[in-house]
Design a protein that fits this description.
The protein has about 325 residues and is of the alpha/beta class. The chain contains 11 helices and 12 strands. The chain is about 35% helix and about 15% strand. Bound molecules: adenosine-2'-5'-diphosphate.
Amino acid sequence: MKTITLASGDAIPAIGLGTWKIPPREACDVVQTAIETGYRHIDCARIYENEASIGRGFEFCLRRGVVGRESLWVTSKLWNDSHRRQDVRPALEQSLLDLRLDWLDLYLIHWPVAHRRGVLHAEQASDYEPLESVPLAETWLAMRECQKAGLCRNIGVSNFSRAAIEELISTTGIVPSVNQVEMHPYLQQSALLEYCHGQGIAVTAYSPLGSRDRPDDMKSANEPSLLRDPIIERHSRALGITPAALLIAWGVQRRTIVIPKSTDPHRLRENLAAADIKIPDNVMQELAGLDRSHRFVDGKFWEIEGGPYTADSIWGE
Ligand code: A2P
């Protein structure tokens, strides 16, 4: 199993199971199947609303000795409604309770966006807190306290631009261990990747297959399809692998951690095996030419008239 070593010295498996969009009624079985298939890294979040089901899968596997807790990497994420200092630890403890775990391997600030307490989904501008009133540094220092208390071994961020990371480091002196962002050949983010690696920050690539199964209101008309891209199809055929395997191997070869989601046992196995595929340099070069700065998770859903957030301000563009 390929791993990436974090600044703490902890080794995170380079391929994890993404659990966004796995319905709660299936999540327990999918996680069980994934662990039995050899997955040792499960990427979760409170807002995916399936942590309680995933927790049953963990308990089943840990009790039966399918895997030991030390050999399993579990990430979860702090939702936007719990950014205030006093709300961070209770949110983490709720995830631990649902996941039936004593600690997390990694806890991330899910988005650089703050909601009013108790608001899961912002529907009007007043559902937000501007970052001036709940600064990310406040949230970050509370995450650090959780780490010191042993509730999570590593702390990191998600959907953070270089500017947001720089501000976090300059105000707190604490470097995130991971930044989890959307990343695939249509959104290569090479500058952000280089910056993070230069700072010793590992990068996790979410939506590596283009997240075709995300909700319709998050999709744009005529969006491109990674899995049906003619260049990706041509190279995968030549290498005797599937487009999905090529996309995952591409991410691993760029030294990123990749978290494809699947609920299908066959695809789960195929996705995990992609870590061992070597893509020839000339193919990597051709895939570099596919970059078109296309976000499938474009952040526009944070834009509410009169609200403090825009997609451009989040992505630092
Ligand atoms: P399924 O869950 O039925 O396997 P992403 O990881 O970018 O969010 O993409 C997830 C989407 O890609 C889901 O629709 C998932 O469907 C599909 N998917 C996952 N693995 C594969 C694969 N190996 N081949 C084709 N589609 C896949």
